[in-house]
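Morning F.,

Quick status update on the modeling queue. The single chain you submitted on Monday has been processed. Sequence for confirmation:
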Amino acid sequence: MKLDRFYPIFDHPDWLARMLPLGVKLVQMRIKDLPADETRAALQRSKQLCDAAGAIMVVNDFWEMAIDLDCDWIHLGQEDLDDADMVAIRRAGLKIGISTHDEDELDRALAEQPDYVALGPVYPTILKKMKWVEQGLDRVQQWKNHIGDLPLVGIGGMTIDRAAGVYAVGADIVSVVTDITLNENPEDRLKGWIKATR
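Structure tokens below.
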């Protein structure tokens, strides 16, 4: 299954209700700081919306809920790998994306035979505090040379203007969060992203 080149991340199904009708085909649900029952309900609603729109939904972190809800994809950070039951995840048939920030993390990710690898932050990001400085385009190219045909996601500080350069050095997919969610007109910004990436 070929993944779309544009990969927005949202934290609530209300975003999906607004954005899926505009043409989003690949989306990550990164839900944080909610009680477990509310997280599960939000993921369930998100899956219903994505299924109805024919979009691929990737569940960030909550692999057990993803299995219970019969989801197809999960995304794991390096910390998530510490606790994830990879045998159970594979037995459930889940496809997996894994975050990486340095060579050791890339080696660890590749050992799990992921379905995509994410590298970030490519540019400075305001989304969350990280110990890593911006990776830059040279690192994106280095990662792609290393992983070959495995899809590479560039994330962190992404804007429409930066996307072309990230694709040019080897990223297959560009992931974006705040450039849409903090925009004065998120719908117009998302339409701009779709036009620039397809």
